[in-house]
Amino acid sequence: MTQNLCKALMSAAAPALILLPALSSCSKPAQENATEQAATETSATEQAGTEQAGAAQDESAKNAKGLLKAMADYLAAQKVISLSYDSVFEVVTDQQQKLQVATSGTVLLNRPDKVRTTRKSGFSDTEMVFDGKTLSFLGKGQNAYIQAEAPGTIDTLVEQLRDKFHRQLPGADFLTSNVYDELMTDVTDVKDLGSGVIDGKECDHLAFRAKDTDWQIWIAQGDTPYPCRYVITSKGVDQAPQFTMTIRDWNASAGAGQGDFSFTPPAGAKKLDIKDLAALKETSDLPENYKVGASK
């Protein structure tokens, strides 16, 4: 009877012995399927995350370009502009020390062809006047001046100052008629970083990358989207020195640029020839001891 019981148990167990391996063989693909499904879901989640991040980046770039274009259009539409500025220009010595040159000044502009600027630093006190025909440089410390014929508009003045006289018009990046195109040249990456506050004014903070430089701009929010701060980083130079310009006292009202754009040299001022512009040392961007190769 025990043997019959054993046979009965064996008979009852037989299907189980056959089915169990079958269940086992079916469970392995199920685990693999679950793993594959999890991997697929993970991949889909990552892809969705990547797509969302890409969409967010696209939206950020779109917003930043739109804000920059709105600023550029606003600036180009202003017939007169008056502003004060503070700037810091960083240089790196041959001993790898980063130094800053701090400057303050003013700009008075009347489109299309008149501008007067001042610049004052620890080594200079200068004035530049352009009346549409004649460009005048005055070094107040040296009490000397230079005049040159340079007929044209503010746009052509910016080019002549850069290419012919090797000088800069303060805030030139914002004073020409094609601000957006000039700023966006060679830009490869654009970001809207939200808002920031400059001198108590809430601004849109934008960041841009180009081949040789990174640059940031803070644009005043509201009906007058003027540049409150502008920072350029030179990526190809050791220690990545920066130029920073902060704009104050912005005024583009009708009476802002109704100034005198004629030039009258002060009493006793010495007139220099344009070929001697280098001798008017105050108009240089750097003091003499900052010249390349100069000793301290």
TrEMBL record:
Record keywords, A-Z: Signal
Keyword match Ligase: no
Statement: the UniProt record of this protein carries the keyword Signal: yes
Signal sequence, renumbered to the chain: 1-30
UniProt region (Disordered), positions on chain: 31-58
Biased composition, class Low complexity, residue ranges: 31-57
Gene3D superfamilies: Lipoprotein localisation LolA/LolB/LppX
Protein name: DUF2092 domain-containing protein
